[in-house]
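Fold this sequence, please.
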Amino acid sequence: MILGITGGTGCGKTTLLQEIKAHGGMILDCDEIYHTLLVQDRRLLDAIESRFPNVVENGMLNRKKLGEIVFSDEKALLELNAITHRAVKAEVLRRLETKPGLAAIDAIALFEGGLAELCDTTVAVTAPLEDRVRRLMSRDGISEAYARSRIAAQKPEAFYTQCCDHVLRNEGSIAAFQQLCHSFVEKLLREIN
């Protein structure tokens, strides 16, 4: 079974991923895959450089320079996403060739990147705004204003809950959410066995 996991930053997707990993599932973290490809896949860097000249310096992507371009130009951001989503999806497909019994694709752009179509089921992880702000500030060592701006730059919660087959709401204690994730994964495993 391939499970697609999505939701905004600071919602608790990592807790669900840890539960899947504890049950022997393969984790495909699309952020990690993207950053690995930036180092290992020259074709991806060449495609980015071709569309956005001078953002690759000494064989490395200057993310700040690229960010200045794409975050002020919606068309440029869509073009960058088309390049990166294609590369990430190809790598996800390559890793799935091992035919794991349970795999989780963790992607904030699960639907936009065409990854949801690879999934047997999808789940949105959500949490109250104030909890997310507090988690981001603690986890990333950032200011409240910056945490709020990062959340505001993402899709609203309703997008994720409307697109996904399941919703896990992280609105209690850490232990309560861990138990919710455990029960969810156990139910999935019963369905595939």
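The chain has a mean pLDDT of 93. Residues 74-96 form the longest helix (23 residues).
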